[in-house]
Amino acid sequence: MNNGQHRTSNVTIEVRTAAKDSSKRLWSDVVNDVATGTVARLRIPPGKIAGKQVNWRARATTGRATGAWSKWQSAAVPADDVTTAETSSHAAAPPADAFTLLTYWESTDNKLINYRQGYWDRTKDEGFGNVKIKQKHDLDALSAHQMTKHPLRGIVPDPLIMTRYHYLATSYRHKCDGFLWWKECYVAESRNTRTIMDFNRESSKYEGTLGVLTAYCEGMTVCPSWMRASFGAVLLPVPG
Fold first, then answer.
1. N or C: which end of the chain has fewer CB within 10 A?
2. 35-to-32, 60, 91, 107 alpha-carbon distances in Å
3. pTM > 0.70
4. What is the mean pLDDT of the chain?
């Protein structure tokens, strides 16, 4: 956000089904008091745009002056677990220990991945980090580690928030029959996975980047029980 006057602005964001005024509005909200040079953040309520191809735009109001709408931006929003914006001005404040750094590693694209304690509010379906990943999706730090080390389906930017990236991987369950020379192994089951990273920095809350928001199996809430075992044992560093 930059209004060229070093003043705060109110930013309106709307999401529609198509890039035209007459299309159906799916969601709209306002972020108040956005300082120049900063990024406006909003939490989109779960289910509003998940799994849809959408178009969005924004405009700022400074004092009595309202600017023009920005150009339309298109976005394909994944269907699962992507509406939680933990650093949003509209989200409830996380617990005091939510930003505690549990471990860290380097991703396949040479980025530092921070893995934090996080939290999960089951009632509101809000949260991030280890607590959410374990309690909601039955995965853990090793899962997120392997999914960011081997994103064979690609690394894609988040359709709405510029500091976020999605690491797309696949986990396989192998089954073997026979013994010794007659032993044959094959893929009995596979699941596509998604790990969402946020490289946002907020020095007043935590050191470095925020880190892993969530890791889950696409198309389901709780991952199969074999998933965690399939990632194997990896020794992850503990902050000293």
1. C
2. 9, 11, 19, 32
3. no
4. 82
